[in-house]
């Protein structure tokens, strides 16, 4: 294992495919009424399903604590568990590669595909490969990457971007999906029937027939992993459609791109994780397909297995003693489904493959706060706290968002706020300045007669949605001085402190 701690400047492009900062992107997204309607319906449906299956578990909070402890243990001793994982995988015939960043990971996968003489690969849904923009790298090398997850297929055929961690096409409705299938499937394989209805079962059938020829033809598959067990050298993928099982078993060569934070210390840790993940993500008691593979086994599955362990800023996040808890994320998307901001703007506004509350803290940790996109993300929240309540591994997202805002201010991304904080620091660092400021504010409060401010220069946007209370006519310090200047012997009620 080569030790490396890349800084955020070494990562991929600072904006996701050139998207604008969150406020601009959100303003545009709010104008898409169909998308807002689709998001509202989908998130509330998933939310209700999750609430029902979580309510069945008497010890849900104990499960959350177990998940938190397991992931925290892995992160605390990550170098040890990564080396153990590499050792176990190698013992079982897999080849382990280490990738410092996106460019290195993409180069490894492209080289493997070229060595196999193929011009196409089939893919299991993977956030890590989206993060490093592997599909684009493969296409540039003349290798077609076919997404086989239904939602990912919809996004790919529509020339779209994923907008949700679990359901990338959550912003599309049935009619839109039908139109995409009829228009695009014939361009890259078996076409959809011209009379295809906007019926979920028929849409799934069209996707299945379109993908079947690709499954049977592909010699190389690319996957991610939900978990990587260090003790046994096992990779785990959970999914609901069976496409993952096809990718993981049919091709001769399997390449798995796995973020280094996906490691679990022990096999027994899956007991809690495989209860937390399906309930929090799809609202199911268990996933229909749970595939576990450990290296190469004669006559069973791929003949060649490559595992690319990806850093791409994770070491930078790990070095942040408070922020590292974001690496506990198991990509369940529960925080997205309860977030009032995400529900209204959708995932594209976050400028990353990781949208929603967890994306708002994870992206700046992985990429730094040099870009306007990453400086704006910590503000994409009402700080209502619903994300922490929903998180199965108890990531304190609200406190990380507040900390992220502080980093954004220090980076100079919010000059007005930075100037205000600098001024407040100067005033509060000397009691005489503070007392003078308090006297001035009391004078203003008396002149206002207790009436709130409807608009404040420099804070117009903030005060357009709320009133800024007028300062009190008398500060506590002034009240105290007045009370203690009363004549000796005055024992009236007002003198009792």
TrEMBL record:
<keyword id="KW-0411">Iron-sulfur</keyword>
<protein>
    <submittedName>
        <fullName>L-lactate dehydrogenase complex protein LldF</fullName>
    </submittedName>
</protein>
<dbReference type="GO" id="GO:0046872">
    <property type="term" value="F:metal ion binding"/>
</dbReference>
<feature type="region of interest" description="Disordered">
    <location>
        <begin position="1"/>
        <end position="21"/>
    </location>
</feature>
<dbReference type="InterPro" id="IPR009051">
    <property type="entry name" value="Helical_ferredxn"/>
</dbReference>
<dbReference type="InterPro" id="IPR037171">
    <property type="entry name" value="NagB/RpiA_transferase-like"/>
</dbReference>
<feature type="compositionally biased region" description="Polar residues">
    <location>
        <begin position="1"/>
        <end position="15"/>
    </location>
</feature>
<keyword id="KW-0408">Iron</keyword>
<keyword id="KW-0479">Metal-binding</keyword>
<dbReference type="Pfam" id="PF02589">
    <property type="entry name" value="LUD_dom"/>
</dbReference>
<feature type="domain" description="LUD">
    <location>
        <begin position="82"/>
        <end position="310"/>
    </location>
</feature>
<feature type="domain" description="Lactate utilization protein B C-terminal">
    <location>
        <begin position="411"/>
        <end position="484"/>
    </location>
</feature>
<dbReference type="InterPro" id="IPR004452">
    <property type="entry name" value="LutB/LldF"/>
</dbReference>
<dbReference type="InterPro" id="IPR017896">
    <property type="entry name" value="4Fe4S_Fe-S-bd"/>
</dbReference>
<keyword id="KW-0813">Transport</keyword>
<dbReference type="GO" id="GO:0006089">
    <property type="term" value="P:lactate metabolic process"/>
</dbReference>
<feature type="domain" description="4Fe-4S ferredoxin-type">
    <location>
        <begin position="326"/>
        <end position="395"/>
    </location>
</feature>
<dbReference type="InterPro" id="IPR024569">
    <property type="entry name" value="LutB_C"/>
</dbReference>
<keyword id="KW-0249">Electron transport</keyword>
<dbReference type="GO" id="GO:0051539">
    <property type="term" value="F:4 iron, 4 sulfur cluster binding"/>
</dbReference>
<keyword id="KW-0004">4Fe-4S</keyword>
<dbReference type="InterPro" id="IPR024185">
    <property type="entry name" value="FTHF_cligase-like_sf"/>
</dbReference>
<dbReference type="Pfam" id="PF13183">
    <property type="entry name" value="Fer4_8"/>
</dbReference>
<dbReference type="InterPro" id="IPR017900">
    <property type="entry name" value="4Fe4S_Fe_S_CS"/>
</dbReference>
<dbReference type="InterPro" id="IPR003741">
    <property type="entry name" value="LUD_dom"/>
</dbReference>
<dbReference type="Pfam" id="PF11870">
    <property type="entry name" value="LutB_C"/>
</dbReference>
<keyword id="KW-0677">Repeat</keyword>
